[in-house]
Amino acid sequence: MISGRPPALTLCITASLALLAACAPQAGRAGRSISGRNGGSVSPVVAPLTIQVPNPSRLTSISALRVLPPTISASVSDSAITAKGLQEVIAARADEALTMKVVSAEGTAKTDAELKTEVLTYRERKGSAIGGEPATVAFLMTLSRSSDGAVVWQANYFYQQEALSDNWLKIGQRFGSNGTGAGWVSAQELFQRGVMGAFEDLAARRDEQFVRPRPGT
Predict the structure, then answer these.
(1) Tens digits of residue pLDDT in 99-141
(2) For 169, how many CA atoms within 13 A lie in the half-sphere containing its CB?
(3) φ/ψ bin of 79: left (φ > 0), alpha (ψ from -120 to 50), beta (otherwise)
(4) pTM value > 0.90
């Protein structure tokens, strides 16, 4: 019980919050739902993703990609993250979501494309469980053909989680089946969700090219 607050008022507030949680729209992923190569759904934060595909038909020529160590912007002050650590995360998520061969920069296997990632913002949250400074993550992924350097696919991601204390009307979204709970999500989790969402988009676009009917058929 909150000190100094009448029991009846506390009960009323609790009931109101529960009603909001039940009635508010659930925070789902914008657009279609895509499963990874191994099945299942990860419910990544996809709404902040902006995708560019100059020539979708080029995606069918990519059967193996090399994940390069990401470049980290000088504005990123979190000394806990390293290019190698983020590279491992990116490679693991790519292997999970894509139906193509994935190798790291240290590998010697021949690949059709290279994946470059620029980490523009990576700021961990500060404060209490329901208030303070939120985690923020932004990155740019570019998939280029190894043969000529042509950009095949690009994903731009930016996400800053809104603190629950800043907008109580979103309590239903935060506690929904795809929500993140009352507390904040770490920058690491935001990064992983963004990366997974990007790769799921890449997988779906590539698959569409294989099943798209050819003219005259």
Answers:
(1) 999 998 777 789 999 999 999 999 988 776 556 678 899 999 9
(2) 0
(3) alpha
(4) no
Domain architecture of the chain: domains with CATH: 8-211 (3.30.160)
Q: What is the 3-state secondary structure (H, E, C) of 100-114?
A: CEEEECCCCCCCCEE
Q: Which of 70, 35, 62, 77 is nearest to 157 (CA)?
A: 70
Rounded distance, CA 198 to CA 179, Å?
19
β-strands 49-52, 151-160: how paired?
antiparallel
Do you know the residue count of the chain? 217
Residue for token pair 């902006």: 50
Contact 140, 197 (CB under 8 A): no
